[in-house]
Amino acid sequence: MKLPIIAYGDPVLRKKAEDIGSDYPGLQQLIGNMFETMYAAHGVGIAAPQVGLAIRLFVIDASPFAEDDAQLKDFKKVFINAQITEESGENWDFNEGCLSIPDIREDISRKSKVTISYLDENFALHTETYTGLAARVIQHEYDHIEGKLFVDKLSPLRKTMLKSRLDSISKGLIKVEYKMRFPAQKRKR
């Protein structure tokens, strides 16, 4: 089932997410719904806060980037209770966007290498190191479970220049091809 994606301005996007256990209600269905939602919106990753849940869960399918980076050919993963243990390498800029912040793309600087510990959908523990685009997508989604957004990495001047567009998103004054929930809609209930 496709879930509404939470728009910029909703407080859930700013909460540091909580760890979950294997007994989390409906977890496997939630994971499936998150993949379906992400695909419908043409994303390569989505985090639980983006569907309204402040839990430490995100999913990635970066295979659309396989032409640019061969390691992403079958890069489809579930990350539960993830902790980045190291970010290293050179800083490099790449143009990022976010399903919760549609129609805004900006060059964001991130480290080129990341080591992350996480549980997969079967609650098996993994500690892995990624580089390049895989590292970038992981860092972007990890930021969501830490209550951070890619626009937080912009200069104050750039943020000021984007303020009216960000305000329009939070008010629902945008058109998107996927289902979204805007902060203003939430208050009407």
From TrEMBL:
Q: What class of enzyme is it?
A: hydrolase
Q: Which organism is it from?
A: Hufsiella ginkgonis
- Active site as annotated: E141
The record's remark on the cofactor is: Binds 1 Fe(2+) ion.
Catalytic activity reported: N-terminal N-formyl-L-methionyl-[peptide] + H2O = N-terminal L-methionyl-[peptide] + formate
Cited function? Removes the formyl group from the N-terminal Met of newly synthesized proteins. Requires at least a dipeptide for an efficient rate of reaction. N-terminal L-methionine is a prerequisite for activity but the enzyme has broad specificity at other positions.
Q: Name one Pfam family in it.
A: Pep_deformylase
From the Swiss-Prot or TrEMBL record, give the protein name: Peptide deformylase
Q: What is its EC number?
A: 3.5.1.88
Q: State the family named in the UniProt similarity comment for this chain.
A: Belongs to the polypeptide deformylase family.
Give residues annotated as binding Fe cation. Answer: C98, H140, H144
